[in-house]
Amino acid sequence: MSDQRATHGVWSWLLKGIVVLACICLGSGAGVGLLYWHMKDEIRAKAQGVFDDALEAVLGEADRYGVVGNYPEGAAPQDKVYVNAAARPVLYAATGAAQGYQSQIKVLVSVEAPAPDVPVESDAAIHAMAVVQSQETPGLGERIKEVEKDVSIWALLAGKKPTAGRPWFQQQFSGVRLWQLGAGAQEPAEGSEAAETRATAPAREVAAITGATVTSTATKRAVRNAAEKIIAKTAEAYGG
Q1: Can you tell me the distance from the alpha carbon of 24 to that of 9, in angstroms, rounded to the nearest whole number?
Q2: 215 CB-contact burial (10 Å; exposed 0-12 / middle 13-18 / buried 19+)
Q3: 235 three-state secondary structure
Q4: In the chain, where do the E strands start and end?
Q5: What is the reported pLDDT for 182?
Q6: Residue 216 gets which letter from DSSP?
Q7: Is residue 168 within 8 Å of residue 146, measured between CB atoms?
Q8: Would you call the peptide bond into 89 cis, given omega within 30 degrees of 0 as the criterion?
Q9: For residues 48 and 56, what is the distance between their CA atoms, to the nearest angstrom?
């Protein structure tokens, strides 16, 4: 009898523990859900603000940006391809993403085109690139967003302000041809002007961040993803 009581006491204690733990989990989940519901508009507005700033950074200032092609109703702004037709050269932009070392890396990339309403080819050059989302290792992978300081600490203490600049890693992509990143799989015809351009084009290597090879490689994949999105969408919209 005493053994039965002891066993019953153990199971009763375990059951109470399970019930308490379940209540804690349910309460925590409900709290997180309530917090997100309360702040979801603010979160979306902040994310949209980051995207808008990045779009202006890669496409330049304009009264408005055009949208290339058609999209399903309710398509997110980040899923569309944009164009600044007033820029010279004309600029197209799209987002790309790839899995990094410990987070998904999202970028916004603009490429140059000689004229509006024509398909972008793989010989097009990248105009600018901006990282819009990453949570890589601080001091290593997160250096993809690092802006090099152009003043010493003593100058800062003396009141001199640093010049606003672009992250050095992101700047490396400007001028790189899309085919140099592997975007646009189709090879130009032998003897064509495009083939000659490729043969004589200088090598463009995007230097990896020391100690963050995975993050660097993932960023290149994200840029290539964005470039391929631009090539495909402009071909669909304008023929190619």
Answers
A1: 23
A2: buried
A3: helix
A4: 66-67, 82-84, 90-99, 104-113, 126-133
A5: 73
A6: H
A7: yes
A8: yes
A9: 12
For residue 30, the one-letter residue type is A
The token pair at 139 is: 């001091």
- Residue 85 vs residues 9, 82, 95: alpha-carbon distances, Å: 76, 9, 18
**Which of 80, 81, 76, 78 minimizes the C-alpha distance to 91?**
81
Q: Does 198 score more than 80 pLDDT?
A: no
Q: Which amino acid is at 101?
A: Y
> For residue 229, what pLDDT is reported?
95
3-state helix, strand, coil in the chain (%, to 5): 45, 15, 40
Q: Please tell me what DSSP assigns to residue 190.
A: T
Note the pTM of the prediction, 2 decimals.
Answer: 0.74
- How far is Cα 149 from Cα 130, in angstroms, rounded to an integer? 18
Q: Virtual CA dihedral for 227, 230, 234, 236, nearest 10 degrees?
A: 100
For residues 122 and 128, give the distance between their C-alpha atoms in angstroms, rounded to a whole number.
16
Q: How far apart are CA 121 and CA 90, in angstroms?
A: 13
Structure-token match 């606003």, residue found = 164
* Rg (alpha carbons) of the chain, rounded to whole number: 25
Helix, strand or coil, per DSSP, at residue 45: helix
Phi, psi of 112 (to 5 degrees): -95, 145
Cα–Cα distance list, 77 to 43, 61, 160, 240 (Å)? 15, 18, 39, 24
User: To which H or E segment does residue 66 belong?
Assistant: strand 66-67
Split at pLDDT 50, 70, 90, the class of 72 is: very high
List all residues 6 or more positions away from 12 whose beta carbon is below 8 Å from its beta carbon: none
Identify the residue with better confidence: 233 or 181: 233
